[in-house]
């Protein structure tokens, strides 16, 4: 319930269309004036005071009565009506002011009502005997404006339909790859500087709805995920047969938007700092994926829109894990006949080969055979003969998309490698659009047909030449061994046969050794799991709990770092990275 003023709607729509992100490093600024009318406990307590009460009661006789002792107390209390309103009937008084009869608060107090009795049912409201019968329904509705329940981090709240939810909406956008799923940018009225993302989940047993029991089960799983680089469930609630997920950080800037329009915070970093951030990104993402599989959770939808960058800090996050995908009611919408039956083109382009396969179906028809496109290729198998002037054609047609994924972790590793290559392309100051054009170079179609297939899985040969002739060439020219090692790992992750790809934890181990190289970063990375023989003198910024710096290897010998654990244990000493 916010009033926005001096905001340009056209400009806002432009920014929102860019995935909630303003190009060239500028995010949508807050409006100049932002006022809220949420009546939470703090505002009620700050508003209803003796002066406020006297200003609302204009009758001079009733003003004098405010300072008289209560009638119903029978000597048990010396409190005056004014004091009783402040202590026990603030909300009642505000509701009556809204109804235009603040003086009726005396009847409420004499009838032994107080704020603890709220909310009241219609039958109970009739017992109040308000001045006008028409005010009963108004009271029933307006009382909830002063009964706002606060949302707490890590908790789930079930709101009644009449209740108000204290969240302000800044913008709305449609989730990429989804026809109906909307993501809202929201904030709490008293914390306007911190933004979150909110998703809606229709609850019920109808089409594109999720049973409440299943919704609560998914919440339990999402609440169990705690990783520094996975978007977390901040809180959840239900309201008017809809479940809501409030996520942190806000899903504003994805990796694709970041690469296209690097924000000013990125440009202000030095060349060495940008290099260190890039290598930490790939390590942190791989560690986040390994964390999920360590807990038996598959991601299943790694693509640019599921990789989030926090603009102010340049921190990277993995979002849209398979559990939250299940909470998307549009996942069960039938595939569109356009784009070859593919609804989410981004998922197709970054998906593993085993997830996007089609079977060839042979069938007889009286019409001439036609060419059919399959992953950018044209297949035609036909034989015709004439019998009594009737032409019979045996044609081979393409069936529906079929997934043959026996090991989801290996499929996610393939998709993650696609993201890594785009990050490395950005690091090498190459255009990702040029990379996409290179992938589809041998897979182009006629001008009148669909766009060329630039998916990774259909163009692995072109992906290999991009690595060899562009990125690897640049790495060798600069004698950049860590960059070369990272590209070599991407090659293994992109193997067509899933069994030849490393598992998620194996990717973390390989990248950890790459990131700890002195050429990449002078300090230990904050993600990963490995044991390396390195002199501690190479790492700076490490201190023990008393604040003493560590600069030699004599006290630790071997440096060990465990995923999502920020301590190092050795020789009965506990060291902490800050």
From TrEMBL:
What Gene Ontology biological process does one annotation of this record name? mitotic DNA damage checkpoint signaling
Domain of life per record: Eukaryota
Listed A to Z, the keywords are:
Kinase, Transferase
Q: Which Gene3D superfamilies match?
A: Transferase(Phosphotransferase) domain 1
The record, for SUPFAM superfamilies, names:
Protein kinase-like (PK-like) (SSF56112)
Chain segments annotated as transmembrane: none
Indicate what this protein is called per its UniProt record: Kinase-like protein
């Amino acid at each position: 319930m916010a009033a926005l003023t001096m905001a340009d709607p056209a400009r806002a729509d432009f920014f929102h269309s860019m995935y909630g992100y303003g190009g060239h490093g500028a995010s949508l600024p807050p409006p100049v004036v932002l006022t809220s009318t949420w009546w939470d406990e703090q505002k009620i307590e700050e508003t209803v005071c003796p002066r406020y009460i006297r200003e609302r009661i204009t009758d001079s006789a009733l003003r004098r009565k405010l300072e008289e002792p209560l009638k119903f107390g029978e000597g048990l209390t010396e409190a005056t009506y004014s004091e009783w309103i402040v202590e026990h009937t603030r909300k009642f008084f505000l509701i009556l002011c809204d109804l235009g009869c603040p003086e009726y608060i005396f009847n409420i107090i004499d009838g032994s009502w107080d704020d603890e009795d709220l909310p009241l049912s219609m039958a109970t409201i009739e017992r109040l005997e308000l001045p006008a019968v028409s005010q009963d329904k108004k009271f029933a509705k307006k009382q909830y404006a002063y009964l706002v329940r606060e949302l707490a981090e890590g908790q789930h709240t079930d709101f009644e339909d009449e209740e108000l939810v204290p969240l302000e909406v800044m913008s709305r956008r449609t989730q990429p790859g989804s026809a109906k799923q909307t993501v809202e940018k929201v904030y709490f009225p008293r914390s306007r500087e911190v933004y979150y993302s909110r998703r809606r989940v229709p609850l019920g047993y109808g089409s594109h709805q999720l049973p409440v029991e299943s919704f609560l089960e998914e919440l339990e799983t999402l609440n169990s995920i705690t990783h520094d680089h996975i978007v977390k469930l901040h809180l959840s609630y239900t309201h008017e047969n809809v479940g809501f997920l409030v996520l942190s950080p806000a899903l504003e800037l994805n990796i694709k938007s970041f690469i296209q329009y690097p924000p000013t915070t990125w440009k202000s970093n030095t060349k060495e700092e940008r290099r260190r951030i890039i290598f930490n990104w790939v390590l942190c993402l791989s560690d986040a994926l390994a964390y999920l599989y360590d807990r038996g959770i598959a991601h299943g939808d790694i693509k640019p829109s599921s990789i989030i960058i926090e603009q102010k800090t340049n921190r990277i996050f993995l979002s849209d894990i398979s559990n939250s995908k299940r909470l998307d009611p549009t996942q069960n919408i039938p595939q569109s006949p356009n784009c070859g039956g593919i609804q989410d083109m981004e998922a197709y382009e970054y998906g593993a080969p085993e997830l996007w396969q089609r079977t060839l179906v042979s069938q007889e028809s009286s019409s001439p055979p036609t060419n059919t496109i399959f992953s950018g290729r044209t297949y035609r198998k036909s034989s015709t003969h004439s019998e009594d002037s009737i032409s019979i054609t045996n044609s081979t047609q393409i069936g529906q998309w079929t997934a043959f994924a026996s090991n989801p972790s290996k499929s996610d590793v393939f998709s993650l490698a696609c993201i890594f290559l785009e990050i490395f392309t950005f690091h090498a100051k190459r255009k990702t659009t040029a990379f996409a054009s290179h992938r589809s170079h041998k897979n182009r179609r006629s001008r009148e047909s669909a766009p060329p297939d630039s998916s990774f899985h259909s163009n692995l040969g072109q992906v290999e030449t991009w690595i060899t002739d562009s990125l690897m060439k640049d790495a060798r020219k600069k004698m950049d061994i860590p960059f070369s090692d990272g590209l070599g790992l991407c090659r293994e992750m992109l193997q067509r046969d899933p069994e030849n790809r490393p598992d998620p934890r194996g990717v973390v181990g390989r990248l950890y050794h790459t990131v700890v190289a002195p050429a990449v970063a002078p300090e230990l990375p904050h993600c990963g799991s490995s044991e390396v023989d390195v002199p501690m003198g190479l790492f700076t910024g490490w201190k023990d709990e008393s604040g003493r710096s560590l600069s030699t290897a004599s006290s630790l010998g071997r440096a060990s770092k465990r995923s999502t654990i920020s301590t190092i244990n050795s020789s009965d000493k506990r060291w902490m990275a800050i």
